[in-house]
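Protein Record: Sequence and Backbone Structure Tokens
======================================================
Tokens: labelled as protein backbone structure tokens, with as many entries as the chain has residues.
Task: work out the structure tokens from the sequence, keeping to the layout shown below.
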Amino acid sequence: MKPFEELSRLGRIRRMRQLAQVALNAYGLSDVRFKLLRQAGNTLFRVNEVDPVPTTKAELARLHGFAAHWPSPPVPTKRKYDWDGLFRDAAGVYTSGRETWSLLPQEYVEPFEVVTRRVKQVMDEWGQGPEVYGLIHGDLGLDANVLFWGGEARAIDFDDSGFGYYVYELSLALEHCQEDDALPQFRDALLDGYTQVRSLPEDQLEHFDLFLAAYFVYLSLYAAGVAPFHPNDREELLRRMARAFRLVERYLADT
């Protein structure tokens, strides 16, 4: 068998799909259908048996409700998803955020800077009080890092957890379906379910799309910083950057 590292991107997906099927068979799920969500770093598949929206939204609200009452440690041990953490200090894995900005395609820079200026103004106005900011999962969505037990969502993989704005994390739940015709229904279901468990003030809700746009800028910085060091993933990373740029432009055109 050819070593995994020597496979093409398509070959890696095929290999991981075979492994995913073996795992499903072991859990008695050999008849379910599953689809590839993304392959860049981690390979993620989704089993198309459970509607993730109703339970994931409640899981997010429960996590945020707990985090709002959890005291921050005196010595920081987690990354921060504040302005510096997203766009400057930790945007690139192998380079600093400052250096990573220079790796972006030139046409990306101006619209991305507009988003970063807008979100900085909001972050400065809000501050980092427990009603807006606290411990978050950092990578929890309808398409990622959620398992279901008895029809209920359970979060897994807290590697990217840190301190950030709750509305930032909430917006990530809709990242994967931004170009889906059912996006308005997904959004309504997410927000309705979340607010049944935990309140979301109107001034936070009105900046939902801004924080999602900020995530797309962060994602592009991350991809630009990683791509030179992972040539086998470069095509997928560039594709994700192009999508992020397209969605940022759409956000700016609508606001």
